[in-house]
Design brief:
The complex is a heterodimer. Chain A is α/β, with parallel strands linked by helices. Chain A contains 18 helices and 24 strands. Chain B has helices at 2-45, 52-77, 85-101, 106-131, 135-154, 165-170, 179-197, 199-209, 211-216, 221-247, 258-268, 280-299, 304-334, and strands spanning 159-160, 249-250. The chains are: A alpha/beta, B mainly alpha.
Chain lengths: 506, 335
């Protein structure tokens, strides 16, 4: 730590000194001291919630530290609210976030100068704008006509356009937040090349990513964060992946107690060589009855695509999905439900719940006829059926018809899982079931999953939180570079090797 | 510990759920008050407003809007819109008149007319559900094509049906109440029931509230969308039949602008144009508000052109007041 603070000399382009930021219940940044010097490409590593985003928001002036100071280009940020963010912007700090902010129906040039179009008397000077756009894109090796629509661009090209936008007006520091997470490997290379060009112009780059091969390719040093603290800044050349993983996870990472394996020999689902361009090239595995199978992988590794391909929501290019001896390659979503499969989506709010409807209707919508008599819904049966699920999954709700939107995230998630318990599904595909859920509810969801498996149901559990996989899964497969790379079996699922398997390159 | 858990929320939640229930019906309560106010104003200012005959008139006018409005309520709750109501009513009235001229037995002609309306509505539904044409565009096309066809084949002249006992009976009051009003109320009960008590009705709310979640929980989103527009067509057809019974002819120029009255009634009734939220009772009250305004302004002898201005103002003010009331009760719930 002391070594790092001494590293904050006068020529630092941006630095934090002893910054602490506390949110209700969380210490998001704990006495952090951080500095980047001119000409540097710095990787920023840490698992979800380690404090990376808070650190970035400190640099952009979007947040004010409770104690400590932030200095950009030799001047301490002092304003509050939007003036602070403007200060930071004027001193040359730019961020490119994961969610792209382009307007698909407008041209590349229009997007590049969005809201700041060069104009004369209110009329946009297209010739000027397009010439400037061409130049800005050429700097990044993006050779596209500036009058093309963004709608026709590949994901990598969109990302490059975002970076080109950040490059306008000679910035001093560009922060890239997981710029390759939604890209396939070949596409990611284009972005990497662009980042190298940015650095070559003497602009400091802070690169947030978990892909070790990328970090090795472009970064000089890596800062590792955990629990709001800066743990260490290491030289990328000298560090090995296992050492970085140890720093990310800390010493508390230990092997979980062995789970009681109740899985039975019968195979309920077989996936053979499933390919879905560009994310999945060849995925094969089988799922046994009563087994909880974890699928680990970084953001953008194709986890959601895999589940959706199995469920028939997303058509895949080649390969086969079999139940017993029968191929269900051409089965649609409804066929899969009829065969006893259930799927809970990753984004609960957008795809999981109907917020205005009650817990009862959100639970029973998989099979309204089960609570009807002659086609008419029976309030009594609805209440009874919902009560059963509410009790079994420990859902905290005052009444069975309380609008689900008023429940906590954890309880909403339990309803989304409970929906398939009610429907009698035998195989559950759960995509990030603990995302945005508090600690207590997480533990409850784990025990619910174990309980469902003990009853003979089979579960595929997708998670990007490495530490929860050993608590729930009988077996974990690691998805990387479009295929399943490694297999871990309980009790030999340890977080370090899992994380290393996820982030290490080819 | 488990006792603690069970007991505490139950106690503290009681006033909260009561308030929640009130805020859910806030909309209906305020509309009911609006209707009372309208009654008081018109009763004291418009001569003959309060008479029995005028009450019957109000009911009959309400039926014209109401029958179509029940279906449109479900369509809007599902996050869609149907603007083809007026031309659909006129088109079916013309079709029915032709069917009767060709000598089809009256009950059979009714069935054919309703089925035809459902079929035409289903075309909009299929365009929406399977070809992703926005429902506004699909029904706008229907709006233009149906009106045009009806005008083209009739030359904008009424199509007379001659003497028809059954149709006459449909326009003869039962104990002073017009059959159209009775049909409207029976259909209201049916729609209120379907919307609250059947898988179809609840699926409509789910689709309007979150179509992705509805699909992923196994609801047949596309089929329900087609069904909704088919029902819309069938309800417009019933209005068309009642129109023929009232006018004694099929009329291509009839029901002009009806779709706006219908949508206004649904929206005044508190159904959200964004989908997922709404109630049949609200629409019933909305229909009454729209009808009362029309009726009262005529009786007051206000210039018909200026009536439209007043109507427009009242509709916007009603919706504005409703939105404010709901916002205020929601923020009180949160606090």
């Amino acid at each position: 730590m002391t070594a790092v603070s001494n590293l904050a000399p006068a020529h630092a382009v941006a630095s934090l000194r002893d910054c602490t930021r506390r949110y209700p219940g969380v210490l998001a940044l704990d006495n952090a001291t951080f500095a980047v010097a001119a000409g540097e490409v710095r990787a920023l590593l840490g698992k979800n919630g380690a404090g990376k985003s808070t650190l970035i928001r400190m640099l952009t002036g979007a947040e004010i530290p409770d104690t400590g100071s932030v200095t950009i280009d030799g001047v301490e940020l002092s304003g509050s609210g939007s003036t602070r963010a403007q200060d930071s912007f004027q001193k040359g700090v730019r961020v490119v976030y994961q969610e792209l902010s382009l307007v698909p129906g407008m041209t590349l040039a229009e997007n590049l100068f969005l809201g700041r179009w060069p104009r004369k008397g209110g009329v946009i000077r297209y010739a000027d704008m397009e010439a400037q756009a061409r130049e800005a894109m050429a700097q990044l090796g993006l050779d596209l006509p500036p009058d093309r629509l963004v709608a026709g661009l590949s994901p990598a090209e969109r990302q490059l356009l975002e970076i080109a936008r950040a490059m306008l007006g000679r910035p001093k520091l560009i922060i890239l937040d997981e710029p390759t997470s939604s890209l396939a490997a070949a596409e990611a290379d284009k972005v990497m090349a662009a980042v190298t060009r940015v650095a070559a112009q003497g602009i400091v780059v802070i690169y947030v990513s978990h892909r070790m091969n990328e970090i090795r390719q472009i970064a000089h040093s890596a800062t590792i964060m955990r629990d709001g603290r800066i743990i260490d800044t290491v030289d990328v050349k000298g560090a090995d992946t296992r050492e970085i993983v140890r720093l990310m996870l800390g010493s508390e990472a230990s092997q979980a107690a062995a789970l009681e394996d109740r899985s039975q020999p019968g195979i309920v689902l077989e996936v053979h060589d499933l390919a879905l361009a560009p994310k999945l090239s060849s995925v094969s595995f089988s799922l046994r009855q009563g087994e909880v199978l974890g699928i680990a992988g970084l953001l953008g590794s194709g986890r959601t695509e895999l589940l959706q391909a199995i469920m028939g929501v997303r058509p895949f290019d080649s390969g086969d999905v079999r139940i017993g001896k029968q191929s269900v390659r051409s089965a649609g979503y409804k066929d899969m439900i009829a065969r006893g499969f259930g799927y809970t989506p990753e984004s609960r709010k957008e795809e999981g719940i109907v917020p205005l409807l009650g817990v009862d209707e959100n639970t029973l919508s998989t099979n309204f006829s089960g609570v009807s008599r002659k086609g008419i819904l029976s309030s009594r049966r609805m209440a009874e059926a919902t009560r059963k699920i509410v009790d079994r999954l420990h859902i905290k709700t005052a009444r069975t018809d309380t609008p689900i939107g008023t429940l906590s995230g954890g309880n909403q998630q339990k309803v989304v899982i409970g929906r398939w318990v009610y429907a009698g599904s035998r195989v559950l595909l759960l995509d990030e079931p603990t995302r945005g859920v508090d600690v207590e509810a997480k533990a409850q969801i784990y025990s619910i999953i174990r309980q469902l498996a003990a009853e003979g149901r089979s579960i595929i559990f997708v998670s990007s939180e490495i530490e929860e996989l050993p608590l729930v899964c009988d077996r974990v497969l690691v998805l990387r570079d479009g295929t399943l790379q490694d297999e871990f079996k309980s009790p030999h699922i340890d977080q370090d090797s899992l994380m290393a398997a996820c982030i290490s390159g080819h | 510990m488990s006792l603690d858990h069970a007991a505490k929320p139950a106690v503290s939640d009681k006033p909260k759920t009561a308030r929640l229930a009130f805020s859910q019906h806030m909309n209906e309560v305020s509309l009911f008050l609006a209707i009372l106010v309208l009654y008081l104003i018109f009763a004291s200012t418009a001569p003959g407003f309060i008479s029995f005959n005028n009450q019957v008139n109000i009911l009959r006018d309400a039926a014209t809007i109401g029958i179509a409005a029940w279906a449109v309520t479900l369509i809007i709750i599902a996050g869609e819109i149907d603007v083809s109501v007026g031309p659909m009513v006129a088109f079916i009235s013309v079709s029915l008149a032709f069917l009767l001229q060709w000598g089809l037995p009256t009950p059979f002609a009714f069935v054919v007319a309703i089925a035809f309306g459902a079929f035409l509505g289903a075309i909009s539904g299929v365009l929406r559900a399977y070809f992703d044409v926005p429902s506004f565009v699909a029904t706008l096309g229907m709006w233009s094509a149906l009106r045009g066809t009806a005008l083209f084949v009739t030359d904008a002249l009424p199509v007379s049906i001659g003497r028809n006992d059954m149709l006459d009976a449909l326009d003869r009051s039962v104990f002073g109440i017009p059959p159209a009003a009775i049909i409207m109320l029976v259909l209201f009960a049916a729609f209120a029931f379907v919307s609250r008590k059947t898988a179809f009705g609840r699926s409509v709310f789910a689709i309007g509230g979150n179509p992705h979640a509805a699909f992923l929980s196994g609801i047949s989103v596309s089929r329900i969308r087609v069904g909704l527009f088919a029902i819309g067509g069938a309800m417009a057809a019933i209005s068309g039949i009642l129109l023929v019974s009232r006018l004694g002819s099929g009329n291509a120029t009839a029901a002009s602008g009806l779709e706006f009255d219908v949508i206004a009634a649904v929206v005044v009734g508190g159904t959200a144009l964004s989908g997922g939220r709404g109630s049949m009772l609200g629409t019933l009250l909305g229909v009454l508000v729209i009808t009362l305004i029309g009726n009262g302004l005529v009786l007051l002898g206000i210039n018909p052109f200026f009536q439209q201005v007043v109507r427009g103002l009242i509709i916007v003010i009603a919706v504005l007041a409703n939105i404010q009331a709901i916002k205020r009760s929601l923020s009180r719930n949160k606090g």
